[in-house]
């Protein structure tokens, strides 16, 4: 009895997961480019030691996701060529195909499981960094130096983070800082605000002003990890 129907079903399933990993790879590549551009901007303005470590971790993570997706897509291609050496147009994929058992005998899946563990580590690390950023801003509110500041200008775009620039006096010199605006308060140029600062960070009593680059880095890393973990786990157990 010919096993061609079974091979076609297996090839269709592999094709579907190949498409999924192509999308994951594309997301990883876009994340890498975005983080690289953000890192370049930060290097031209201000960059602390912690920023360097987190930027390196983010760039390494997105590069790893992209490279892993490329490896898996190539692996799927090889399996498809084995199952259907002379590929023509495969029949449409059905739900039953996805719910069917493994298309090929299960072998070692160390690479896929390592990807899943890596993604889980990235997710945990991103959550911890976000928690640490929140703790830093709260500690600053309690221990930082307070002074009066004046709002210079306000940027409230339809999309993206609203910000305003504030001028204040620190150590006898006038300084300017950009504050991310997340509260319900309305700001206008000339408004008086209470600025809280230390050697590395500035906020107001109403705006915690976390580092937007690090927040964006964590969000991108979390999204990538949420795609990577289930995708790698499925690849390890079903493909």
UniProtKB/TrEMBL annotation:
Superkingdom in the source lineage: Bacteria
Keywords from the named record: Membrane, Transmembrane, Transmembrane helix
Transmembrane portions of the chain: 20-41, 53-73, 113-133, 213-236
Name the record gives this protein: DUF3592 domain-containing protein
């Amino acid at each position: 009895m010919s096993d061609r129907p079974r091979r076609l079903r297996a090839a269709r399933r592999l094709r579907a997961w190949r498409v999924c990993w192509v999308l994951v790879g594309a997301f990883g590549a876009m994340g890498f480019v975005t983080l690289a551009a953000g890192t370049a901007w930060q290097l031209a303005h201000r960059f602390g030691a912690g920023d360097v470590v987190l930027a390196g971790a983010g760039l390494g993570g997105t590069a790893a996701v992209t490279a892993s997706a490329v490896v898996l897509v190539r692996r799927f291609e090889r399996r498809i060529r084995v199952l259907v050496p002379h590929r023509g147009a495969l029949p449409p994929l059905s739900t039953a195909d996805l719910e069917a058992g493994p298309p090929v005998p299960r072998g070692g899946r160390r690479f896929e499981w390592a990807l899943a563990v890596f993604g889980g580590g990235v997710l945990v690390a991103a959550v911890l960094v976000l928690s640490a950023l929140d703790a830093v801003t709260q500690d600053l509110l309690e221990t930082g130096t307070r002074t009066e500041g004046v709002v210079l200008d306000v940027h409230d775009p339809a999309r993206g983070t609203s910000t305003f620039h504030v001028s204040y006096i620190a150590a006898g010199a006038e300084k300017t800082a950009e504050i991310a605006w997340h509260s319900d308060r309305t700001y206008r140029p000339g408004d008086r605000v209470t600025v809280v600062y230390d050697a590395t960070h500035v906020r107001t009593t109403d705006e915690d002003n976390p580092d937007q680059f690090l927040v964006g880095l964590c969000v991108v890393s979390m999204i990538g990890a949420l795609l990577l973990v289930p995708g790698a786990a499925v690849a390890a157990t079903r493909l």
